[in-house]
Design a protein that fits this description.
The chain is α/β, with parallel strands linked by helices. It has helices at 13-29, 55-59, 61-64, 107-120, 148-151, 162-169, 239-250, 269-275, 291-304, and strands at residues 41-43, 69-78, 81-90, 98-101, 123-127, 179-185, 207-210, 226-231, 255-259, 281-287. The protein is globular. 48% of the residues are buried.
C-alpha cells in the first residue's frame, strides 16, 4: 500500500538564508540543470539506468531495474578538470532527500545511496573518478570553494572550483531537507594504529564526539561507523545542534561534530555547507565494505529526522 510523500521539516531562518546564498552562487557561475552552459556545464536527458557507463550503477541494476528511477549524466568543465557525475532521481518523489557520494572507490556508500533513493525518494549524485578516490590528483571532497581566496585556505584543493561546487550543490535547490553525504573509511585511524583518517577515537581542537546509545546492531558501536556533522559554532553553544546530536544518539548512532572556522576549513562539502550557512548537514561514515551497517545507518538517520519511507512495508529489522 502506498503511503504519504516523504516529509521533511520546514526551513529555519539559517537554512532559508543559506538557500538564498546558494541560489546566488549558482546564478553567478552559471550552473544549470537540464541545459548546457557555454559548453562547460551540462546534464543529459533522463535515461534508463541500464544505459549508464558506471560500474557502481551496473552493480545495482538488480535493485534499479523496473524502479521509477531516472539516470542523468552530468558534466562539468573547469580549467583542466573534466568532471563527470552520475545522477539517479526518483521520478515519483523527486523532491525527497538528496545524497552525494564523492569518492568512487567507496562501493558500500554508493550501494547505501541506492537503497536510500529507492526507499525515501529524492536522488543521488556520485562523482566518477574511474574507481579511484581522487581524479586529476584532486580529492573530489576537498574541491568545494567559490573563490580563489577561499580555495587558498585549503591545502587539499588545487584551484578554486566554483562551477564544480555549484553543479553539485545546485541539486539541493527546492529541497527543504538537509545536505546529505555518504562515505566509507578504513579501519581505525593513524593515531590509534589504524589505517583510516576518521574514527570516534579521533580527537582534535575542532572535533567533538558523542557515542550512540546501545540500540540496533552491535556494529553501530564500532568507532568507524558514525554520523559526521559540521557547523560554525561549538556544539555546546547551540540548542539546535545539541538537539540534533541527542536525537541521533538515541537512535544508536555515533556522532562526530566539527566546528568550522577559517583555520579548520578544508574545502570539503561539509565545511562549505557550514561556512556558508546553507543548512543542516549529515554525512554517514561507515567502515569500508560495511554495506549492511551503512544501510542501517541510513534508515536510522532518516527516522531520527522525520523522513518516512515512501511505502509501508514489513517491519524494518534495522529499526526494532
Amino acid at each position: 500500500m502506498t503511503g504519504g510523500p516523504c516529509r521533511v521539516g520546514p526551513l529555519d531562518q539559517a537554512s532559508l538564508l543559506g538557500s538564498i546564498a546558494l541560489a546566488a552562487m549558482i546564478a553567478l557561475v552559471g550552473c544549470s540543470s537540464g541545459r548546457q552552459d557555454a559548453g562547460q556545464t551540462g546534464i543529459s536527458a533522463c535515461m534508463d539506468p541500464v544505459e549508464a557507463r558506471s560500474a557502481d550503477i551496473r552493480r545495482n541494476l538488480g535493485a534499479l531495474r523496473g524502479a521509477p528511477i531516472c539516470y542523468r549524466r552530468q558534466t562539468v568543465s573547469e580549467g583542466p578538470f573534466q568532471w563527470v557525475f552520475h545522477v539517479l532521481e526518483h521520478t515519483k518523489a523527486p523532491k525527497g532527500p538528496f545524497w552525494v557520494v564523492p569518492h568512487d572507490n567507496e562501493n558500500a556508500a554508493f550501494d547505501a545511496g541506492v537503497h536510500a533513493v529507492l526507499t525515501y525518494g529524492g536522488g543521488l549524485l556520485a562523482v566518477d573518478s574511474s574507481g579511484n578516490r581522487t581524479r586529476y590528483g584532486q580529492d573530489p571532497n576537498r574541491n568545494f570553494s567559490r573563490s580563489r581566496s577561499e580555495s587558498r585556505l585549503c591545502s587539499g584543493q588545487r584551484r578554486a572550483a566554483p562551477r564544480y561546487t555549484a553543479a553539485i550543490l545546485g541539486h539541493y535547490r527546492g529541497r527543504s531537507g538537509p545536505y546529505l553525504a555518504l562515505h566509507n573509511n578504513r579501519n581505525g585511524h593513524a593515531g590509534n594504529g589504524g589505517s583510516g583518517n576518521l574514527s570516534m577515537a579521533l580527537a582534535g581542537r575542532s572535533i567533538t564526539s558523542w557515542p550512540g546509545a546501545a540500540v540496533g546492531s552491535p556494529a553501530l558501536r564500532d568507532e568507524d561507523n558514525l554520523v559526521f556533522m559540521a557547523d560554525r559554532h561549538p556544539p555546546g553553544t547551540d540548542a539546535n545542534t545539541r538537539r540534533r546530536i541527542a536525537a541521533l544518539n538515541r537512535a544508536g548512532l555515533n556522532v562526530m561534530h566539527k566546528e568550522v572556522t577559517d583555520r579548520s576549513f578544508d574545502c570539503s562539502m561539509s565545511d562549505f555547507v557550514a561556512r556558508h550557512r546553507l543548512g543542516d548537514y549529515y554525512n554517514i561514515e561507515a567502515e569500508l565494505g560495511a554495506r549492511r551497517t551503512q544501510i542501517e545507518m541510513v534508515d536510522r538517520l532518516m527516522a531520527s529526522i522525520g523522513i518516512r519511507p515512501l511505502r509501508r512495508a514489513a517491519a524494518n529489522p534495522f529499526l526494532d
